[in-house]
Amino acid sequence: MRRHVCKVISQATWRPALALLLASVATAGVLASAGCSQPLLVFQAKPEAAAAVPEPAEPVTTGSIGPLAPRSFGGDLTTEDWRRAKSALAVALDPQGNGQPVKWDNPESKMRGMVNPTGLPYVANDEICRNFLATVIAPSGSRFVRGTGCRPSGGSWELKSLKATRAPA
Q: Which of 10, 16, 68, 153 has the most other CB atoms within 10 Å of its CB?
């Protein structure tokens, strides 16, 4: 009976060697099922040949994760500005509310604005959603922000889409 001696394969060569081993095992299975009595051939990749094969690059993006949701009404809002604006957003979009605009302001940064719901609440992807039009007034100028806010049952409101435009001068 013939004995086969296996050599330890370095980590750099295990992937190509594994592919060759799987191919040889599949070939041996086909030959055995055909009634052939051929010896099992085991291939070992040479380390220099395996080093020439580049590793596949990780994908930059995948289709399973969508783009990040917007986080505020603009980059010029401070953390405190956004906290106040987000509170106004929650009150304005609440389906139990009266549908009236809700104002917010931060005297320290001189930022202020208003969130106005522009339609009735609706359900999308098991979340309650509502469209809105927000006004942001800064010392450097003002803008309108049109968007959609959604919240899961019992959760907090999150921005799903935003589109900002400058107010006419």
A: 16
